[in-house]
Design a protein that fits this description.
Thrombin, subunit H; 14 strands; 6-stranded antiparallel β-barrel; mainly beta; 211 residues; 2 domains
Length: 211
């Protein structure tokens, strides 16, 4: 039986009319549809589609805005860039129009939650991965505000990839990798952080180029 969402405090007839099955989000599909690649020459990063002509990525992808770039292999022109000061950048574009884009989560990710992201590690095409929120990252190792460690596979080139919860909502953006090792044993975890843009900036991204 599918999960249903109901409104309490109503007469039985009205209550039955308002009890509708909640559509389950196909998270892998939603993640892939809202993810893309960004390339300029041999430099590559990942991106998160946040509007019809807007892509969220990592600020440390320095090539953006300095040389011609492509989004998913398509040449585009950068019209505007906005940074939040915490390694997140929204790039406003011309020459491309996206039909689907992401929505922000109203809650922050917690340890143990399942997450997904799709990025372009190394020279690979867009790859989908699944893992878990491990916990906060030590600020001495992760200077970006509210950085979170992810127990998930990743590599250079994944920076800028959006991280999504089980509801298909954006809970962070990949911006780095943390390595630990001693006695010949090493482990690594990906690092994400929640974008610090004001709501007005995301609203601008959602409406930019809509007309």
């Amino acid at each position: 039986m599918p999960f249903t969402k109901c409104v309490a405090g109503l007469a039985l007839g009205a209550l039955l009319a308002l009890c509708q099955p909640v559509k389950k989000v196909d998270v892998p599909e939603a993640v892939l549809n809202a993810s893309t690649s960004i390339q300029s020459g041999t430099s590559r990063c990942s991106g998160t589609i946040v509007g019809p002509r807007a892509v969220l990525t990592a600020t440390h992808c320095e090539f953006i805005g300095t040389r011609p770039i492509t989004i998913a292999g398509q040449p585009v022109k950068v019209e505007l860039m906005l940074d939040d000061g915490q390694d997140h950048r929204i790039v406003f574009l011309s020459g491309v129009r996206f039909s689907e884009f992401t929505r922000l989560s109203e809650t922050r990710a917690k340890p143990g939650e399942t997450v997904w992201y799709a990025g372009t590690p190394g020279t690979s095409n867009l790859l989908l991965r699944k893992g878990y929120v491990a916990g906060p990252c030590d600020p001495t190792q992760c200077p970006i505000l509210d950085s979170i460690l992810l127990d998930i596979n990743g590599y250079f080139g994944d920076s800028g990839a959006g991280v999504y919860n089980e509801h298909g909502a954006l809970v962070g953006v990949v911006h780095g990798i943390v390595f630990r090792g001693e006695a010949g044993i090493q482990w690594k975890m990906m690092v994400m952080a929640y974008p610090q843009f004001p709501k007005e900036v995301f609203e601008k991204a959602r409406t930019y180029g809509r007309n």
